[in-house]
Write a structure and sequence with these properties.
rod-shaped, 75% helix, 3-stranded antiparallel β-sheet, alpha+beta, 5 strands, single chain
Length: 230
């Protein structure tokens, strides 16, 4: 069978070929539309800045409040940029509109359920929102860091001043201790000299008394002798 014979057969049965082709295309389209898509969950966690209060890290702002601003402002703004750039199909944009913004302790959790083919788009979307959150909370974090540095600096200066004053007091105490020792030694020396002086004065007093006694005895003997002569 040559080419002309094949062409005759094709023309003869062209309606059957078209019907088969149409049924095949409709079946393929139905298969694509009805086969369930593979969905993936994409998550991004953004840490909330903290400061130490009573020795414990506490969020500078409630994670729920930050998540609320992300849902009302940063998420819609990121989706508008996606639509403007044409980087996402309407189905992907619709899926991203249902993204979750949840505050969990010291974190904000961004979550999206998307077709696996658009996973990278969802990640880029969440990164855009995360950057907006960080830019929002950074001023408060910088202010808290500066306050902490000032407190640390004041505490360091106070510690240094107290250390210096303590060293001065210790030197004064040592000086006073040495002065007390000197005064004690001087007192001991004065006490010794006073004792020696007292002993010398006592000896002189005893000698004077003996001299007086001898004189009185001589006077008495003289009187007796005069009486005897008379």
């Amino acid at each position: 069978m040559n080419a002309s014979d094949l062409l005759k057969v094709a023309l003869l049965y062209h309606r059957s070929f078209l019907a088969i082709f149409g049924l095949s295309f409709a079946g393929l389209l139905l298969f694509v539309l009805t086969v369930p898509k593979q969905l993936v969950a994409v998550k991004t966690v953004v840490q909330v800045p903290t400061s130490f209060t009573n020795g414990k890290p506490e969020p500078l702002e409630s994670a729920d409040q930050i998540a609320g601003r992300a849902a009302m402002l940063y998420g819609p703004a990121a989706i508008d940029r996606l639509q403007s750039s044409g980087a996402a199909s309407p189905a992907v944009v619709t899926a991203l509109l249902g993204s979750g913004y949840d505050g969990a302790g010291k974190s904000v959790v961004l979550s999206s359920t998307i077709d696996s083919s658009a996973e990278q788009i969802a990640r880029n979307f969440q990164q855009t929102v995360a950057k907006a959150i960080i830019a929002d909370v950074m001023p408060a974090a910088d202010a808290a860091r500066q306050r902490a540095e000032q407190v640390h600096l004041l505490a360091t200066e106070k510690t240094e001043n107290l250390t210096k004053q303590l060293a001065v007091n210790e030197k004064r105490i040592q000086s006073i201790g040495g002065l007390i020792d000197d005064l004690w030694d001087q007192s001991e020396n004065l006490r010794s000299e006073l004792s020696k002086t007292y002993q010398s004065a006592r000896a002189a007093l005893d000698s004077e008394l003996k001299i007086r006694e001898v004189r009185e005895q001589r006077v008495a003997v003289g009187n007796l002798a005069m009486s005897a002569i008379e």
